[in-house]
Amino acid sequence: MIIGKYVPSKKPLWSNYVWRSELVTGIYENFLVLFFLNILTGTPFLKYPLRLLGCKIGKGVCLYSTQITEFDLIKIDDNSSLNDNCTLQTHLFEDRVMKMSYVDIGKECSVGGMAVVLYDSKMESRSILEPLSVLMKSETLPANTCFVGAPAKKT
């Protein structure tokens, strides 16, 4: 109702759209997560409210994080794991422009605790992003690989 469906786009920092998006994020982080979703973290039930918000979450996904912003831009495939407080960052502010795009987590992937996956990136099947690592925007982790660091490098 407030924002509509999130789609890949570029919006000026001082636009009505960005203010509405920040309102949605504020309500999500300071109300929904705080009073409801934190209780569900690590259970098989967290995926249901996130799906209602627009996230595409497959079967057997293990979610220990609620650090998601633009819900419609998230895809997490079957049997993947998002560990403690990792972030799927579907937007960045660059040169006073809000740039948004997809984050695609493939089958049987693992995003380590407090790791960050930036927009326009993809993790192919069975790839691993180690804890405290950053997958830079527009990068792809090939299938069956492990990356670590900020920015992430192959181990």
Keywords:
155 residues; alpha/beta; UDP N-Acetylglucosamine Acyltransferase, domain 1; globular
- Give the second-level CATH assignment, the architecture: 3 Solenoid
Amino- and carboxy-terminal Cα gap: 44 Å
Q: Which stretches are poorly predicted, pLDDT < 50 over at least 5 residues?
A: none
Classified in CATH, the superfamily is: Hexapeptide repeat proteins
Give the CATH class: Mainly Beta
Structural class: alpha/beta
Q: Mean pLDDT, as a whole number? A: 96
Q: Within the largest sheet, what's the order of strands?
A: 3-6-11-14-17-18
Gyration radius over CA: 15 Å
Number of domains: 1
Largest β sheet strand count, sense and barrel closure: 6 strands, mixed
The CATH topology corresponds to UDP N-Acetylglucosamine Acyltransferase, domain 1
Helical stretch count? 2
User: What percentage of residues falls in helices of 4 or more residues?
Assistant: 10-25%
Order of helices and strands: EHHEEEEEEEEEEEEEEEEE
Shape verdict: globular
